Amino acid sequence: MGKLHDVVNGLKNNVLLTKMSDLADRLFTKANDRNAQRAIHPFWIIVQKEISDHVRSWRFNVLLFLILLTCFGSLYTSITNLVGELSKPNTEDRFFFLKLFTLSDGSLPPFHVFVGFLGPLLGIGLGFDAINSEHNSGTLSRIISQPIHRDYLINAKFVAALTVISVMFFALGFLVIGFGMFIIGIPPTAEEFLRIVFFLLLSVLYVAFWLNLAVFLSIRFRQAATSALTAIAIWLFFTVFYQLIVNLVARAMAPPEMASQQQLLGYQQFIVNLMRVVPSQLYTDATTTLLVPSVRSLGPLTMQQAYGAIPSPLPLGQSLLIVWPQLTGLIAATVVCFALSYISFMRKEIRSR
Question: pLDDT by residue (tens digit) across 137-148?
Answer without folding.
Answer: 777 777 777 777
